[in-house]
Amino acid sequence: MQDQKTVVVIGSGIVGLSCAFFARRAGYRVRVIDPNINDRRASFGNAGILAVCETLPLANPALLRQLPSLLLSRDSPLHVRWRYLPALAPWLVQFARSSARGPSLRSALALNSILQTALDAHAELATACSAVEFLAPTGWIKAYQSEEAFGSQSAERAALADWGVAMQSLSRADVNELAPGFEGVFAKATLFPDCQQVKNPGRYIARIQGACVEHGVEFIEDTVRHFHFADDRVTRVQATERVIEGDIFVIACGAWSKRLAADIGERVPLDTERGYHVMLDTRNRMLLRSPLFWHEKSVVFSQLDYGLRMTSSVEFAGLNAPPRYQNIDRTLSVIKGIAPALAELPVESRWLGFRPSMPDSVPVIGRSAHQPNCFLAFGHGHLGLTLGPQTGRLIAQAIRGARTDIDLAPFSSSRFASRSSSDATVV
Protein backbone atom coordinates (compact mmCIF):
# COMPACT_ATOMS: atom_id res chain seq x y z
CA MET A 1 0.00 0.00 0.00
CA GLN A 2 1.27 3.46 -0.86
CA ASP A 3 0.31 4.89 2.55
CA GLN A 4 2.68 2.42 4.21
CA LYS A 5 5.64 3.95 2.43
CA THR A 6 7.42 7.17 3.32
CA VAL A 7 8.77 9.57 0.72
CA VAL A 8 11.58 11.80 1.97
CA VAL A 9 11.95 14.99 -0.09
CA ILE A 10 15.19 16.92 0.37
CA GLY A 11 14.51 20.57 -0.40
CA SER A 12 11.56 22.88 0.23
CA GLY A 13 11.69 25.23 -2.73
CA ILE A 14 8.94 25.23 -5.34
CA VAL A 15 10.22 21.95 -6.83
CA GLY A 16 10.52 20.16 -3.49
CA LEU A 17 7.16 21.42 -2.27
CA SER A 18 5.51 20.29 -5.51
CA CYS A 19 7.09 16.83 -5.20
CA ALA A 20 5.86 16.64 -1.61
CA PHE A 21 2.33 17.77 -2.44
CA PHE A 22 1.77 15.38 -5.33
CA ALA A 23 3.39 12.45 -3.49
CA ARG A 24 1.13 13.08 -0.50
CA ARG A 25 -1.89 13.32 -2.78
CA ALA A 26 -0.89 9.93 -4.22
CA GLY A 27 -1.19 8.42 -0.74
CA TYR A 28 2.37 8.34 0.56
CA ARG A 29 3.60 9.57 3.91
CA VAL A 30 5.87 12.52 3.13
CA ARG A 31 8.70 14.20 5.00
CA VAL A 32 10.45 17.32 3.71
CA ILE A 33 13.93 18.20 4.96
CA ASP A 34 15.48 21.63 4.52
CA PRO A 35 17.83 23.69 6.72
CA ASN A 36 15.77 26.84 6.07
CA ILE A 37 12.13 25.83 5.80
CA ASN A 38 10.85 29.40 5.69
CA ASP A 39 13.85 31.00 3.99
CA ARG A 40 13.63 33.27 0.95
CA ARG A 41 14.63 30.72 -1.67
CA ALA A 42 15.27 31.14 -5.41
CA SER A 43 11.62 31.24 -6.45
CA PHE A 44 10.92 33.96 -3.87
CA GLY A 45 13.33 36.27 -5.61
CA ASN A 46 12.61 35.79 -9.30
CA ALA A 47 10.40 37.87 -11.55
CA GLY A 48 7.38 35.61 -11.04
CA ILE A 49 7.02 34.77 -14.74
CA LEU A 50 5.59 31.42 -15.81
CA ALA A 51 7.68 31.52 -18.96
CA VAL A 52 6.10 28.77 -21.03
CA CYS A 53 7.49 30.36 -24.21
CA GLU A 54 11.10 29.49 -23.31
CA THR A 55 11.44 26.45 -25.53
CA LEU A 56 14.88 27.43 -26.85
CA PRO A 57 17.82 26.46 -24.60
CA LEU A 58 20.48 28.99 -23.63
CA ALA A 59 23.02 26.56 -25.04
CA ASN A 60 22.82 27.11 -28.80
CA PRO A 61 25.28 27.78 -31.65
CA ALA A 62 24.55 31.52 -31.79
CA LEU A 63 25.20 32.11 -28.09
CA LEU A 64 28.32 29.95 -28.15
CA ARG A 65 29.81 32.22 -30.83
CA GLN A 66 29.13 35.22 -28.57
CA LEU A 67 30.56 33.59 -25.44
CA PRO A 68 34.13 35.02 -25.62
CA SER A 69 32.86 38.60 -25.91
CA LEU A 70 30.26 37.98 -23.19
CA LEU A 71 32.96 36.80 -20.81
CA LEU A 72 35.20 39.81 -21.47
CA SER A 73 32.72 42.70 -21.69
CA ARG A 74 32.21 44.85 -18.59
CA ASP A 75 28.58 45.44 -19.60
CA SER A 76 27.88 41.78 -20.35
CA PRO A 77 24.78 40.06 -18.90
CA LEU A 78 27.16 37.22 -18.00
CA HIS A 79 29.64 37.73 -15.15
CA VAL A 80 32.22 35.19 -14.02
CA ARG A 81 34.43 35.75 -11.01
CA TRP A 82 37.78 34.69 -12.36
CA ARG A 83 38.81 32.82 -9.21
CA TYR A 84 35.84 30.54 -9.83
CA LEU A 85 36.74 29.83 -13.44
CA PRO A 86 38.75 26.61 -12.77
CA ALA A 87 35.76 25.14 -10.91
CA LEU A 88 33.38 26.29 -13.67
CA ALA A 89 35.52 24.96 -16.54
CA PRO A 90 33.90 21.47 -16.73
CA TRP A 91 30.46 23.10 -16.88
CA LEU A 92 31.63 25.42 -19.67
CA VAL A 93 32.95 22.45 -21.64
CA GLN A 94 29.57 20.74 -21.37
CA PHE A 95 27.84 24.01 -22.28
CA ALA A 96 29.94 24.20 -25.46
CA ARG A 97 29.07 20.62 -26.37
CA SER A 98 25.39 21.23 -25.65
CA SER A 99 25.46 24.27 -27.94
CA ALA A 100 26.08 22.18 -31.05
CA ARG A 101 23.12 21.97 -33.39
CA GLY A 102 22.15 18.37 -32.57
CA PRO A 103 22.26 18.60 -28.76
CA SER A 104 20.61 22.03 -28.83
CA LEU A 105 17.71 20.62 -30.85
CA ARG A 106 17.31 17.74 -28.40
CA SER A 107 17.22 20.22 -25.53
CA ALA A 108 14.51 22.22 -27.30
CA LEU A 109 12.47 19.06 -27.83
CA ALA A 110 12.72 18.23 -24.13
CA LEU A 111 11.82 21.74 -23.00
CA ASN A 112 8.91 21.93 -25.43
CA SER A 113 7.49 18.65 -24.12
CA ILE A 114 7.48 19.73 -20.48
CA LEU A 115 6.49 23.37 -21.00
CA GLN A 116 3.28 22.41 -22.82
CA THR A 117 1.67 21.21 -19.59
CA ALA A 118 3.37 23.55 -17.11
CA LEU A 119 0.43 25.93 -16.76
CA ASP A 120 -1.97 23.04 -16.28
CA ALA A 121 0.17 21.79 -13.40
CA HIS A 122 0.22 25.26 -11.82
CA ALA A 123 -3.56 25.48 -12.12
CA GLU A 124 -3.97 22.06 -10.50
CA LEU A 125 -1.59 22.85 -7.64
CA ALA A 126 -2.86 26.41 -7.09
CA THR A 127 -6.49 25.24 -7.01
CA ALA A 128 -5.73 22.49 -4.51
CA CYS A 129 -3.74 24.90 -2.33
CA SER A 130 -6.19 27.86 -2.56
CA ALA A 131 -3.50 29.91 -4.29
CA VAL A 132 -5.22 30.78 -7.59
CA GLU A 133 -5.41 34.43 -6.54
CA PHE A 134 -1.66 34.78 -7.09
CA LEU A 135 -1.77 33.79 -10.78
CA ALA A 136 -2.47 36.43 -13.43
CA PRO A 137 -2.75 36.01 -17.25
CA THR A 138 -0.49 38.96 -17.99
CA GLY A 139 1.62 37.62 -20.84
CA TRP A 140 5.30 38.56 -21.06
CA ILE A 141 6.90 41.35 -23.11
CA LYS A 142 10.34 41.27 -24.71
CA ALA A 143 11.07 44.90 -25.55
CA TYR A 144 13.65 46.64 -27.75
CA GLN A 145 14.83 50.23 -27.82
CA SER A 146 15.39 50.19 -31.56
CA GLU A 147 13.97 48.59 -34.69
CA GLU A 148 17.46 47.23 -35.39
CA ALA A 149 17.59 45.38 -32.07
CA PHE A 150 14.14 43.96 -32.70
CA GLY A 151 15.22 42.79 -36.14
CA SER A 152 18.32 41.11 -34.70
CA GLN A 153 16.08 38.59 -32.94
CA SER A 154 14.04 37.60 -35.99
CA ALA A 155 15.68 34.16 -36.22
CA GLU A 156 14.77 33.42 -32.61
CA ARG A 157 11.16 34.47 -33.18
CA ALA A 158 10.99 32.30 -36.30
CA ALA A 159 12.33 29.33 -34.35
CA LEU A 160 9.78 29.87 -31.59
CA ALA A 161 7.00 30.11 -34.15
CA ASP A 162 8.13 26.77 -35.57
CA TRP A 163 7.69 25.31 -32.08
CA GLY A 164 4.15 26.67 -31.91
CA VAL A 165 4.84 29.47 -29.43
CA ALA A 166 2.18 32.19 -29.63
CA MET A 167 3.43 35.76 -29.98
CA GLN A 168 2.29 39.21 -31.09
CA SER A 169 4.34 42.15 -32.37
CA LEU A 170 3.85 45.37 -30.42
CA SER A 171 4.32 48.89 -31.77
CA ARG A 172 5.74 51.76 -29.74
CA ALA A 173 2.20 52.81 -28.82
CA ASP A 174 1.32 49.27 -27.74
CA VAL A 175 4.35 49.07 -25.47
CA ASN A 176 3.61 52.48 -23.97
CA GLU A 177 0.13 51.26 -23.05
CA LEU A 178 1.36 48.04 -21.41
CA ALA A 179 4.39 49.70 -19.79
CA PRO A 180 3.35 53.25 -18.85
CA GLY A 181 6.35 53.66 -16.58
CA PHE A 182 8.65 53.18 -19.58
CA GLU A 183 6.83 55.46 -22.02
CA GLY A 184 8.96 56.44 -24.99
CA VAL A 185 11.76 53.98 -24.22
CA PHE A 186 10.92 51.12 -26.57
CA ALA A 187 10.44 51.17 -30.31
CA LYS A 188 9.19 47.62 -30.69
CA ALA A 189 8.35 44.54 -28.64
CA THR A 190 7.03 41.00 -28.74
CA LEU A 191 4.24 39.88 -26.44
CA PHE A 192 4.05 36.22 -25.44
CA PRO A 193 0.36 36.05 -24.43
CA ASP A 194 0.35 32.53 -23.00
CA CYS A 195 2.78 33.36 -20.21
CA GLN A 196 1.39 34.11 -16.77
CA GLN A 197 2.69 35.93 -13.73
CA VAL A 198 2.84 35.00 -10.06
CA LYS A 199 2.07 38.37 -8.47
CA ASN A 200 3.65 37.48 -5.13
CA PRO A 201 6.09 34.56 -5.47
CA GLY A 202 6.93 34.42 -1.76
CA ARG A 203 3.32 34.17 -0.63
CA TYR A 204 2.52 31.72 -3.43
CA ILE A 205 5.19 29.33 -2.20
CA ALA A 206 4.15 29.86 1.41
CA ARG A 207 0.55 29.02 0.51
CA ILE A 208 1.68 25.75 -1.13
CA GLN A 209 3.78 24.91 1.92
CA GLY A 210 0.81 25.60 4.18
CA ALA A 211 -1.38 23.28 2.12
CA CYS A 212 1.26 20.56 2.41
CA VAL A 213 1.16 20.90 6.18
CA GLU A 214 -2.65 20.74 6.19
CA HIS A 215 -2.50 17.53 4.16
CA GLY A 216 -0.13 15.89 6.62
CA VAL A 217 3.32 16.54 5.16
CA GLU A 218 5.96 16.66 7.91
CA PHE A 219 8.63 19.37 7.69
CA ILE A 220 12.02 18.85 9.32
CA GLU A 221 14.42 21.79 9.61
CA ASP A 222 17.85 20.23 9.22
CA THR A 223 20.67 19.72 6.72
CA VAL A 224 21.13 16.35 5.00
CA ARG A 225 24.79 15.33 5.10
CA HIS A 226 24.75 11.95 3.36
CA PHE A 227 22.79 8.77 2.72
CA HIS A 228 22.89 5.40 4.50
CA PHE A 229 22.72 2.22 2.43
CA ALA A 230 21.63 -1.36 3.11
CA ASP A 231 21.06 -4.17 0.61
CA ASP A 232 22.11 -1.85 -2.22
CA ARG A 233 19.36 0.65 -1.40
CA VAL A 234 19.17 3.96 0.40
CA THR A 235 17.45 3.36 3.74
CA ARG A 236 17.84 6.68 5.54
CA VAL A 237 19.53 10.05 5.47
CA GLN A 238 22.01 11.39 7.96
CA ALA A 239 21.16 14.96 8.89
CA THR A 240 23.05 17.23 11.25
CA GLU A 241 20.80 16.58 14.23
CA ARG A 242 19.18 13.22 13.47
CA VAL A 243 18.78 10.21 11.23
CA ILE A 244 15.63 10.18 9.08
CA GLU A 245 14.34 6.93 7.65
CA GLY A 246 12.28 6.46 4.51
CA ASP A 247 11.42 4.15 1.67
CA ILE A 248 11.77 6.57 -1.25
CA PHE A 249 14.05 9.61 -1.50
CA VAL A 250 13.82 12.69 -3.72
CA ILE A 251 16.76 15.06 -4.17
CA ALA A 252 15.16 18.43 -4.91
CA CYS A 253 17.43 20.91 -3.18
CA GLY A 254 18.21 23.07 -6.19
CA ALA A 255 21.75 24.41 -6.40
CA TRP A 256 22.74 22.24 -3.44
CA SER A 257 21.78 18.99 -5.16
CA LYS A 258 25.10 18.10 -6.78
CA ARG A 259 26.82 16.81 -3.63
CA LEU A 260 23.90 14.63 -2.57
CA ALA A 261 23.47 13.27 -6.09
CA ALA A 262 27.15 12.28 -6.08
CA ASP A 263 26.58 10.42 -2.81
CA ILE A 264 24.28 7.99 -4.66
CA GLY A 265 26.61 7.71 -7.65
CA GLU A 266 25.10 10.40 -9.90
CA ARG A 267 27.74 12.61 -11.51
CA VAL A 268 25.83 15.59 -12.85
CA PRO A 269 27.33 18.77 -14.38
CA LEU A 270 25.28 21.07 -12.15
CA ASP A 271 26.48 24.56 -11.32
CA THR A 272 25.02 27.71 -9.85
CA GLU A 273 23.78 30.84 -11.60
CA ARG A 274 23.65 33.59 -9.02
CA GLY A 275 20.71 35.90 -9.67
CA TYR A 276 20.23 39.34 -8.13
CA HIS A 277 17.17 41.49 -7.75
CA VAL A 278 16.37 45.03 -6.65
CA MET A 279 12.96 46.00 -5.28
CA LEU A 280 11.75 49.52 -6.05
CA ASP A 281 9.00 51.28 -4.12
CA THR A 282 6.47 52.31 -6.78
CA ARG A 283 4.43 54.46 -4.38
CA ASN A 284 1.30 52.51 -5.44
CA ARG A 285 1.75 53.47 -9.10
CA MET A 286 1.12 50.99 -11.91
CA LEU A 287 4.24 51.08 -14.09
CA LEU A 288 3.82 47.72 -15.84
CA ARG A 289 0.78 45.69 -16.80
CA SER A 290 2.94 42.78 -18.00
CA PRO A 291 6.44 41.76 -16.94
CA LEU A 292 9.03 43.07 -19.37
CA PHE A 293 12.43 41.89 -20.56
CA TRP A 294 14.62 44.79 -21.66
CA HIS A 295 16.73 43.32 -24.44
CA GLU A 296 19.58 45.84 -24.51
CA LYS A 297 20.08 45.78 -20.74
CA SER A 298 19.30 42.07 -20.29
CA VAL A 299 17.14 42.69 -17.23
CA VAL A 300 13.54 41.87 -16.38
CA PHE A 301 11.11 44.28 -14.74
CA SER A 302 8.08 42.84 -13.01
CA GLN A 303 5.27 44.70 -11.25
CA LEU A 304 4.45 42.64 -8.16
CA ASP A 305 1.81 43.26 -5.54
CA TYR A 306 4.31 45.11 -3.37
CA GLY A 307 6.54 47.01 -5.81
CA LEU A 308 8.61 46.88 -8.98
CA ARG A 309 11.24 44.16 -9.15
CA MET A 310 14.27 44.31 -11.43
CA THR A 311 16.13 41.04 -11.85
CA SER A 312 19.64 40.77 -13.23
CA SER A 313 21.15 38.26 -15.58
CA VAL A 314 23.82 35.70 -14.63
CA GLU A 315 26.84 35.53 -12.34
CA PHE A 316 28.99 32.46 -11.82
CA ALA A 317 30.83 32.47 -8.50
CA GLY A 318 29.59 29.39 -6.66
CA LEU A 319 27.52 29.11 -3.51
CA ASN A 320 29.87 30.69 -1.00
CA ALA A 321 31.16 33.96 -2.48
CA PRO A 322 29.70 37.10 -0.89
CA PRO A 323 27.12 39.12 -2.86
CA ARG A 324 28.36 41.71 -5.32
CA TYR A 325 25.57 44.20 -5.97
CA GLN A 326 27.69 46.67 -7.96
CA ASN A 327 26.68 45.31 -11.37
CA ILE A 328 22.91 45.47 -10.84
CA ASP A 329 23.22 48.86 -9.11
CA ARG A 330 25.19 50.22 -12.07
CA THR A 331 22.60 48.90 -14.53
CA LEU A 332 19.76 50.40 -12.49
CA SER A 333 21.50 53.78 -12.45
CA VAL A 334 21.78 53.77 -16.25
CA ILE A 335 18.15 52.72 -16.64
CA LYS A 336 16.93 55.49 -14.33
CA GLY A 337 18.57 57.93 -16.72
CA ILE A 338 16.61 56.46 -19.64
CA ALA A 339 13.20 55.94 -17.96
CA PRO A 340 12.31 59.14 -16.05
CA ALA A 341 9.39 57.51 -14.19
CA LEU A 342 11.88 55.25 -12.42
CA ALA A 343 14.32 58.00 -11.47
CA GLU A 344 12.71 58.89 -8.14
CA LEU A 345 11.74 55.40 -7.05
CA PRO A 346 13.67 54.45 -3.90
CA VAL A 347 15.36 51.06 -3.57
CA GLU A 348 13.63 49.04 -0.86
CA SER A 349 15.86 45.97 -0.84
CA ARG A 350 18.46 43.92 -2.69
CA TRP A 351 18.64 40.14 -2.84
CA LEU A 352 20.82 37.31 -4.10
CA GLY A 353 19.54 33.82 -4.96
CA PHE A 354 20.97 30.68 -6.55
CA ARG A 355 19.65 29.05 -9.72
CA PRO A 356 20.57 25.38 -10.20
CA SER A 357 21.81 25.32 -13.78
CA MET A 358 22.48 22.45 -16.17
CA PRO A 359 24.70 23.27 -19.16
CA ASP A 360 22.04 22.19 -21.67
CA SER A 361 19.20 24.16 -19.95
CA VAL A 362 17.28 20.90 -19.34
CA PRO A 363 16.50 19.88 -15.74
CA VAL A 364 17.21 16.46 -14.27
CA ILE A 365 13.92 14.69 -13.54
CA GLY A 366 13.31 11.03 -12.86
CA ARG A 367 14.56 7.88 -11.17
CA SER A 368 18.24 7.55 -10.31
CA ALA A 369 20.15 5.15 -12.55
CA HIS A 370 22.16 3.99 -9.53
CA GLN A 371 19.64 3.81 -6.70
CA PRO A 372 16.17 2.64 -7.75
CA ASN A 373 14.43 4.10 -4.70
CA CYS A 374 15.92 7.56 -5.29
CA PHE A 375 14.56 10.24 -7.60
CA LEU A 376 16.14 13.43 -8.93
CA ALA A 377 14.38 16.76 -9.42
CA PHE A 378 16.76 19.68 -9.89
CA GLY A 379 18.65 21.81 -12.42
CA HIS A 380 15.76 23.96 -13.67
CA GLY A 381 17.82 27.13 -14.12
CA HIS A 382 15.60 30.09 -15.04
CA LEU A 383 12.52 27.84 -15.24
CA GLY A 384 12.29 26.64 -11.63
CA LEU A 385 9.08 28.46 -10.80
CA THR A 386 7.62 27.69 -14.24
CA LEU A 387 8.33 23.95 -14.08
CA GLY A 388 8.13 23.27 -10.33
CA PRO A 389 4.55 21.94 -10.20
CA GLN A 390 4.90 19.87 -13.36
CA THR A 391 8.15 18.38 -12.02
CA GLY A 392 6.39 17.41 -8.79
CA ARG A 393 3.56 15.80 -10.70
CA LEU A 394 5.98 13.83 -12.89
CA ILE A 395 8.03 12.66 -9.91
CA ALA A 396 4.89 11.45 -8.13
CA GLN A 397 3.89 9.51 -11.24
CA ALA A 398 7.37 7.98 -11.52
CA ILE A 399 7.36 6.98 -7.85
CA ARG A 400 4.05 5.17 -8.35
CA GLY A 401 5.46 3.40 -11.38
CA ALA A 402 2.71 4.96 -13.51
CA ARG A 403 3.09 6.17 -17.06
CA THR A 404 4.36 9.73 -16.85
CA ASP A 405 2.72 12.60 -18.71
CA ILE A 406 5.82 12.95 -20.86
CA ASP A 407 8.83 10.80 -21.69
CA LEU A 408 11.46 11.40 -18.98
CA ALA A 409 14.37 9.92 -20.96
CA PRO A 410 15.58 13.37 -22.17
CA PHE A 411 15.72 14.49 -18.52
CA SER A 412 17.88 11.56 -17.37
CA SER A 413 20.93 12.30 -15.24
CA SER A 414 23.03 10.06 -17.50
CA ARG A 415 22.31 11.93 -20.75
CA PHE A 416 25.72 13.63 -20.86
CA ALA A 417 27.65 10.39 -20.54
CA SER A 418 25.71 8.87 -23.45
CA ARG A 419 26.34 11.62 -25.99
CA SER A 420 28.69 10.84 -28.81
CA SER A 421 31.83 12.79 -29.50
CA SER A 422 30.32 14.03 -32.76
CA ASP A 423 27.96 16.20 -30.71
CA ALA A 424 30.89 18.42 -29.85
CA THR A 425 31.03 19.81 -33.39
CA VAL A 426 29.35 23.20 -33.45
CA VAL A 427 27.54 24.05 -36.69
From TrEMBL:
The chain crosses the membrane at residues 6-23. The keyword Transmembrane helix applies. The keyword Transmembrane helix applies. Keywords: Membrane, Oxidoreductase, Transmembrane, Transmembrane helix. InterPro entries: FAD-dep_OxRdtase (IPR006076), FAD/NAD-bd_sf (IPR036188). One of its GO terms (molecular function) is oxidoreductase activity. Its EC number is 1.4.99.-. GO terms for cellular component: cytoplasm. It is an enzyme of class 1 (oxidoreductase). Pfam families: DAO. Residues 7-397 form the FAD dependent oxidoreductase domain. PANTHER family: GLYCINE OXIDASE (PTHR13847:SF289), SARCOSINE DEHYDROGENASE-RELATED (PTHR13847). This is D-amino acid dehydrogenase 1. It comes from Paraburkholderia rhynchosiae.
